[in-house]
Amino acid sequence: MQPKVQKQLQRLLPILVLGVLFFWSACSKKPTSVVELFPDLVFDERSQAKQFAVVATGSEPMIDDLEDGDLNGIKADGRNWSWAQFDDMTDGIQYLTIDQEEGGPRQGNVLYVKGGGWQKTGAGVSANLVYKASPRMYGYYDASVFSGIEFWIKAKDLKQLTVSVGTPETTSTNDGGICISSLPGHFEHQATISDEWTHIQIPFSEFLLKNGNKELAVNPAQIKGLHFSFETMNDYEIWLDEIAFYR
Ligand SMILES: [Ca+2]
Ligand SMILES: [Ca+2]
C-alpha cells in the first residue's frame, strides 16, 4: 500500500469506528419515551396543554369491589368513573352487569360480562379512572405511590386476557388523550385465566408498549384508564372482582 493512502486510512479509521459505535448505540438504545418508541406519533398541542394530573395519596387502593351494586367505580382518592365498554365495531354483542357469588374464594357482588360474535379484535371493559373528574376527560391519574394492579378473575371459554394501561400519549383526543395520529396501542400485559377464580397481580413494570423488538414500560404517573380485553371471536363470560392498586 502506498504510504499516502495508508496515512489517509489511518486518519479515517477513528472516524469510521466512532460512526459504527454511534450507529450501534442508536440502534440498541432502550427507548425512554413513547415518542422515542414511535417517532411518527402526532400530538395535539391544545389537548396537551389541558391535561392535568389527579395525584393518588395511596389512601384507598381499592379501585372497585362492586359491593355497592352499581357500575360506578368507588369514588375515592380523586378517582371518579364508571365501567365502560369497547369493541372492534363488528356485529358482536357484549353486556355487563352485577352478579352475585356464593362459596369459593369470592363472596358478594362481582362484575359480570357476557359477549360474543366479534370478528376482528373482540371487545372488553374499561375503568377510566378520572373520566368524570375533569371537563372533557382531560385528567389522568398519578398512581406512582403504588407498585401495580391486582384483581380476581374467572372466565368461561377464555384462556387469555390482555390487561392494558392507557396514558395521554396512547389515547386519542376524542377520549381525552393527546394523540391525533394513528394510535400506537396501550401498555399491555397478557395474563392466563381459567374457569376457576384466579388472583392476578401485575407490576407496572410489566405493562409494556412494543414496537418491533423495542419496548417501554408504562409510567404509573400517567394513567388514563385500565382496559380488560377479551380477544376472542367465540362466546365468553367473565367474572371480575376487587380490582385494586397494591404497594
Ligand atoms: Ca366484590
Ligand atoms: Ca359501584
The CATH superfamily of the largest domain appears as Galactose-binding lectin
Q: What percent of residues are in strands?
A: 35-45%
CATH architecture of the largest domain: Sandwich
Q: Estimate nothing, just give the exact number of structural domains.
A: 2
The small-molecule ligands in this entry are: calcium ion
Evaluate the radius of gyration.
23 Å
Which structural category fits the helices and strands? mainly beta
Q: Provide a count of the helices.
A: 3
The first-level CATH class name of the largest domain: Mainly Beta
Helix content: 10-25%
Low-confidence region ranges: none
- Strands, count: 15
Q: What is the makeup of the main sheet? A: 6 strands, antiparallel
N-to-C SSE string, H for helix and E for strand: HHHEEEEEEEEEEEEEEE
CATH fold-level name of the largest domain:
Jelly Rolls
Rounded to the nearest angstrom, the distance between the terminal CA atoms is 67 Å
Averaged pLDDT: 94
Q: What's the shape?
A: elongated
